[in-house]
TrEMBL record:
<dbReference type="InterPro" id="IPR003496">
    <property type="entry name" value="ABA_WDS"/>
</dbReference>
<dbReference type="Pfam" id="PF02496">
    <property type="entry name" value="ABA_WDS"/>
</dbReference>
<comment type="similarity">
    <text>Belongs to the abscisic acid and water stress-induced protein family.</text>
</comment>
<protein>
    <submittedName>
        <fullName>Abscisic stress ripening protein 3</fullName>
    </submittedName>
</protein>
<feature type="compositionally biased region" description="Basic and acidic residues">
    <location>
        <begin position="118"/>
        <end position="127"/>
    </location>
</feature>
<feature type="region of interest" description="Disordered">
    <location>
        <begin position="102"/>
        <end position="135"/>
    </location>
</feature>
<feature type="region of interest" description="Disordered">
    <location>
        <begin position="1"/>
        <end position="27"/>
    </location>
</feature>
Length: 135
């Protein structure tokens, strides 16, 4: 493989010293510094997007906890039903239960990240919604 493909993620500028049609056929060369381009999202939109991402991850964690918990219950049932391989089923049950706890913890973490981003989005928008009964 003497010919390698190169991917460059830099802005290019016209190079007068190189003949037209240089290495890539366009007569352009790379600049040393890359510019940072802003997308124009304001703070509120950024926090709302992060909140949506955390909500999605929270739901994935909840689904994982549910699936692992169901599998742990299935293995518990199999341990009773198949006494010859009961030890194997008990070990698998414990692993599944541990996975369920881990996935539940992940969902809990993402829930709190979602709440934090929701609060930051409210602060960035300038309006704070109060839902308190006494205060």
């Amino acid at each position: 493989m003497s010919e390698e493909k190169h991917h460059h993620f830099f802005h290019h500028k016209k190079d007068e010293d190189q003949p037209a049609g240089g290495e890539y056929g366009g007569g352009y060369s790379e600049t040393v510094a890359a510019e940072v381009v802003t997308t124009g999202e304001n703070e509120y939109e950024k926090y709302k997007k992060e909140e949506k991402e955390h909500k999605h991850k929270q739901h994935l964690g909840e689904a994982g906890a549910l699936a692992a918990g169901a599998f742990a219950l299935y293995e518990k049932h199999e341990a009773k039903k198949d006494p010859e391989h009961a030890h194997r089923h008990k070990i698998t049950e414990e692993i599944a239960a541990t996975a369920a706890v881990g996935a539940g913890g992940y969902a809990f973490h993402e829930h709190h990240e979602k709440k934090k981003d929701h609060k930051e989005a409210e602060e960035a928008s300038g309006e704070k919604k109060h839902h308190h009964l006494f205060g």
